[in-house]
Amino acid sequence: MPAVLLSDSLDSEPLPDLALSFLLYPQVRNWLCVVQHSFHPHIQDEVTKLREAIAKESWDQKGKFPPTLKPLLSSLAIRLDEYDDHFFNLMPTLFPYNKFTMSKLIKRTVFQDHIALLTERQDALLVELAAQAKEGFAKAEEEWNPACLHGTNARKNFASRGRCTHLSRTRRARRAIDD
């Protein structure tokens, strides 16, 4: 994408203050613009459904959030793992509230669902871990039996001779090195 020069845009027609601030201060773009297309396609569909539901609601009483929108809002981002700052920046463009109010409302609304989802994921992972542990235990037991038998034979050998043969070889090797 070619770089936009300030002189190119000023020659053709005067820019509004907001567009001029986008050119002069690129960080303003992050503050004010939230592009809906940057979200996952499923979220884009949900956002359009939410926009339609918001248009149907009456916003005369701003102090009370419409209870019919809470389920749509809570299911919007949690299930699709898009519950972050970018999501919170989009919400004030949809609702007549600022970012702080929307983030506080969403976090309070979504908390129980989010905890339930995390618990559900944790339970599924624990079941998977238990299955892997059972498979690994059978393999470890197969490897352990010969080692255990070797240890039993070494103990019997030590008891019958009064010493363990592999230890005496090690001691002889150390003595040879020391001499």
Automatic annotation (TrEMBL):
<feature type="domain" description="Ubinuclein middle">
    <location>
        <begin position="37"/>
        <end position="156"/>
    </location>
</feature>
<protein>
    <recommendedName>
        <fullName>Ubinuclein middle domain-containing protein</fullName>
    </recommendedName>
</protein>
<dbReference type="InterPro" id="IPR026947">
    <property type="entry name" value="UBN_middle_dom"/>
</dbReference>
<dbReference type="Pfam" id="PF14075">
    <property type="entry name" value="UBN_AB"/>
</dbReference>
